[in-house]
Amino acid sequence: MSGVLFSFEGIDGAGKTTQVALLSQALEERGHRVVCLREPGGTPLGEKIRGLLLDRTEDPPSPVAELLLFAAARAQIVATRIRPELEAGSVVILDRFTDATFAYQGYGRGLPLDQILSLEGIASGIEPRRTWYLDLDSEESNRRRTLRGEAPDRLESEGDTFRDRVRAGYLERARSRPARFHVVDASQSVASIATRILQEALSLL
Ligand code: Z5A
């Protein structure tokens, strides 16, 4: 595949969506064809699954059902959007990917990590060239979400202890994949984070 896959990870409020937009714009200005996609979502089927996963409900999915719904949405986006775009030579920027499942369902929910890794092979089978993990503590995450003033979705309603486990999961994943993962201090300014990420992206393209 001639394209390049990048991904952004982090707990809610870390600044992923902000940085995806800035990187995309900067690469387009330099003549790259860029496609930005979010997980869960990014396809008609995936967006329906997103609703099942994130909407607050009196009948929430069990942890295993949640894992399988994320995997189903991922299988769809990989087959119908990510692989075709990479084959066409695009730069694909993902707002979350497989590392989120490792961190949220593995560390957050406590599901067996070997099962999560097997499912990764089935649903995805591809790895980003670079993953920027925007590292933020729960306190700042809460502060940013409060400032935004939106009602929390089902996963955002989990408490700080859950968020701290997720963060530990991301840091463990980063330790085990140092060539792909770059840990970025997400408490820095938007501009300084964006500058560093753009430099790294350009060096990889
Ligand atoms: N999930 C999962 O469990 N398993 C999986 O496999 C996958 C996902 C793929 C998806 O939610 C949920 O699904 C997510 C994980 C779970 N749940 N949680 N919690 P989402 O797609 O809606 O993602 P999110 O993480 O909740 O998005 P977010 O809250 O919008 O966060 P963000 O994209 O990282 O942040 P942002 O929107 O760019 O910025 C948040 C605010 O902070 C905003 O007002 C910005 O202006 C501000 N901001 C951004 N950067 C900065 C800096 N550097 N300084 C100060 N303020 C900043």
Would you give an account of this structure?
There is one protein chain. The protein has 205 residues and is α/β, with parallel strands linked by helices. It has a single domain, classed as Rossmann fold. α3 runs parallel beside α5.
Overall radius of gyration: 16 Å
Number of domains: 1
- Which spans have pLDDT < 50 for at least 5 consecutive residues? none
CATH superfamily: P-loop containing nucleotide triphosphate hydrolases
| SSE string, helices as H and strands as E | EHEHHEHHEHHEH
Label the overall shape.
globular
Task: Give a short overview.
By secondary structure, this protein is α/β, with parallel strands linked by helices.
How are the SSEs placed, and which strands pair?
Blueprint: E1 4-9, H1 16-29, E2 34-38, H2 44-54, H3 63-87, E3 91-95, H4 98-108, H5 113-123, E4 130-135, H6 138-148, H7 160-176, E5 181-185, H8 190-204
Parallel strand pairs: 1-3, 1-4, 2-3, 4-5
Helix pairs in contact: 1-8, 2-3, 3-5, 4-5, 4-7
Bound molecules: ligand Z5A.
The site of ligand Z5A has 25 residues, from helix 1, helix 4, helix 6 and helix 8.
